[in-house]
Every structure is written in structure tokens, then in C-alpha cells.
């Protein structure tokens, strides 16, 4: 299990707020380095065949201005695509999702390493954020990006069962704590963060 903990600990995390047209949004920023060249990482996050091997099956008109749909999850519009460094999409889930965008940024770190950044900015209901905090979304992204790393190493992954696996459950617990640390670093009250970490851990590990 130490491998999943090491992978969770490789991620740099930040939380913050941002003003958007529909109000104040919450932002999550994740950054890590993969031992893969930038062209390979870009292909893994934009090729429909490869996305389905580490994340979820995706369908739609996969070009700027087109719409995509992840099976059983979010969908939206492809807002920007600048190979091999930038992908930005709206990230909409549920009957009334409001503003939500995800941006991926890739940069080469030498010939065979890639700095990967994911930023998710969304207007989140205050009662939901108050209960779960950054980990509600952050843990899911952490597990997805661990899965991406394993895919880039050539490991076989079954995305349909990954998040319920014993390895992922341990990862979710450590991820929830890590997002709590990011919230504390952003100045959130310690008692609120502790309650959010507990609620997020319970959600991801017991349902």
C-alpha cells in the first residue's frame, strides 16, 4: 500500500477562490510530474481510446466547440485545445451544474518528463463546500491522476473498478487528509477542515 501513498504525496495541491460571471468560484490546483514525454501524456488525456483505459469512456465531437460526455459522469464543451500543452473544457454534471471548468496544462521537463497541472474552477453551493470542502472534488481527481500515472507506466487498469479497489480506498483516505492540509494552508479554520476531511473520507471509503 505504500506505493499508493507515495503517489498521493507526489501531488502539489492548492485551494482558492476566483470571481466569475455567475459569482464567486472555488478553485483547486493540482500539479505533479510524470515520467513520460509530453507527447505521450497529451495523447493519454486527449485520445478517446486511451482516456477510456485510465479514466472513463468518452464520446462526442472531440474538437474545439464540440461537446463531450464521460460515461456516467461529467460532460460539456471543449473550450480550448492547443496541442500538446493546453486543454480547457466546461465540466458539467447534474441537472443544474452552474459554472464549472477544468483546464489541463502540460510542460516538458527535459526529454522524458512532463509537468502536469489540472485546475478545476467551479461555483459550489456553500452548504456542500461547508460539509466536504476541497476533498469532495479533489479526492476524485487525485485517484484519476494516480490511474493516469499507472497507465503511462504501462500498467493494466480497469477504470470501472479502480475507485472501489483496496488500493484506491487507502489512497482516498490519504488524499482527503492532503486536501485538508491544502485548506489549512489557505487559511481555512482548523475545526471546519477537520470535519470536512472526516466527511470526505467517509464518503469515499464507505459510500
UniProtKB/TrEMBL annotation:
- Domain of life of the source: Bacteria
InterPro entries per the UniProt record, alphabetical: ASHA1/2-like_C, START-like_dom_sf
The record's section on Pfam families has: AHSA1
Which residue numbers delimit the Activator of Hsp90 ATPase homologue 1/2-like C-terminal domain?
35-125
Of which family is this protein a member? Belongs to the AHA1 family.
Q: What is this protein called?
A: Aha1 domain-containing protein
Amino acid at each position: 500500500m505504500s506505493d499508493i501513498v507515495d503517489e498521493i504525496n507526489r501531488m502539489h495541491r492548492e485551494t482558492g477562490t476566483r470571481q466569475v460571471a455567475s459569482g464567486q468560484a472555488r478553485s483547486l490546483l493540482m500539479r505533479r510530474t510524470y515520467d513520460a514525454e509530453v507527447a505521450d501524456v497529451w495523447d493519454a488525456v486527449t485520445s478517446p481510446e486511451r482516456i477510456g483505459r485510465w479514466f472513463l469512456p468518452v464520446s462526442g465531437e472531440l474538437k474545439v466547440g464540440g461537446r463531450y460526455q464521460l460515461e456516467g459522469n461529467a460532460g460539456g464543451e471543449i473550450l480550448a485545445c492547443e496541442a500538446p500543452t493546453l486543454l480547457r473544457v466546461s465540466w458539467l454534471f447534474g441537472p443544474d451544474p452552474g459554472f464549472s471548468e477544468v483546464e489541463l496544462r502540460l510542460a516538458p521537463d527535459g526529454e522524458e518528463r512532463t509537468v502536469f497541472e489540472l485546475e478545476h474552477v467551479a461555483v459550489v453551493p456553500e452548504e456542500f463546500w461547508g460539509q466536504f470542502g476541497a476533498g469532495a472534488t479533489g479526492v476524485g481527481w487525485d485517484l484519476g491522476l494516480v490511474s493516469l500515472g499507472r497507465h503511462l507506466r504501462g500498467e493494466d487498469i480497469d477504470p470501472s473498478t479502480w475507485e472501489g479497489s483496496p488500493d484506491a480506498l487507502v489512497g482516498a483516505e490519504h488524499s482527503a487528509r492532503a486536501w485538508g492540509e491544502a485548506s489549512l494552508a489557505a487559511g481555512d479554520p482548523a475545526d471546519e477542515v477537520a470535519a470536512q476531511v472526516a466527511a470526505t473520507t467517509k464518503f469515499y471509503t464507505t459510500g
